[in-house]
């Protein structure tokens, strides 16, 4: 697995930094720490995050 501190933004060539990122789904908002470019704000979403934690949150929101 690639180390988060070694991730580089393809657009800006800046090193990604851990930051609180706000996500919205079905009219609800939640925050999660994810690697983000300090220059352009692009967020890196790992497959692990998308298929794990975010999928769990989506299911919970859809069940409500």
From TrEMBL:
GO function terms (MF aspect): DNA binding
UniProtKB keywords: DNA-binding
UniProt xrefs under InterPro entries: DUF7479, DVU_1557-like
Keyword Ion transport belongs to the record: no
Keyword Acyltransferase appears in the UniProt entry: no
Record domain DUF7479: where: 6-64
A matching Pfam family: DUF7479
Protein name, entry field: DNA-binding protein
């Amino acid at each position: 697995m690639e180390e988060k501190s070694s991730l580089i933004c393809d657009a800006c060539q800046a090193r990604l930094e851990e930051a609180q990122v706000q996500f919205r789904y079905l009219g609800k908002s939640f925050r999660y720490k994810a690697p983000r470019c300090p220059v352009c704000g692009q967020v890196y979403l790992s497959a692990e995050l998308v298929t794990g934690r975010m999928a769990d949150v989506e299911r919970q929101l859809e069940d409500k």
